[in-house]
# Entry
Amino acid sequence: MSKSNSRHFSFKEECKESILLLRAIPSVVVALFVVAVITMNLLANKTIVQIDYLAIDGGITVSWLAFMCLDIVTKHYGPKASTQLSILGLLVNLFMCLIFWLVSIIPTKEDYTAFNQIIGGTWFILLSSSIAFVASAVINNFSNYLIGKAFKKNPDGKLAYVTRSYLSTFIGQFFDNLIFATLCFMLFAPIFWDGFHWTFIQCLTCSLLGAGLELLMEIIFSPIGYIIIKKWQKDDVGRAYFDYINNKEKLKNESTH
# Structure
């Protein structure tokens, strides 16, 4: 097989795997995750707390839901699967942002300035949040998986679940906040917001405090995730997807010998 055909084959396989995954994950979890991502983007336009070293926007009220969904998918399907789900969430969010922007620029007789500003968004805020979301999702997914590997005696126990969920959520949310704040308030804002900017210390402090608050939300609602995981394991959810992955690995191993 030529190098180009090998790449084509690999791309087709990845697409097939992603489709099987989305069929395998219960639709309620996928829907909640995508809705949470879109809602986070909208609610981020409202700041609910702002002091020198802490800035919290409305997105914190639903960010725990997005990360809880990722933790559930990582535990059951693995970090690659949850990363694929993250990419889906990002693409749908960008598509909805395009729709919102188009609606915001449609001229009307009534004054919808405030409404248009909310749904229209600011391009560099959207860019910063998109980069931060993808990066933090990957960090969250793989840190969750690696932490879980440390619990060899009882990997499916409650202690293993809460430990991997709490630590990965804090790490993921910290980098989400830090990447967004650094890009938005240190890189873009000084240029496009008349010189307004944050120092790196402000970005770092806000990221730590924000991650702490988001971790608190995760602690409150994580029992729901644990119940869902146990239910999925009991019902053997996603068997077709796992059979496909196992068969793919078997064929790969046979081709190397």
Observations:
- Residues 175 and 212 are 12 Å apart (CA to CA).
- Residues 1-8 have pLDDT under 50 and may be disordered.
- The longest helix spans residues 200-235.
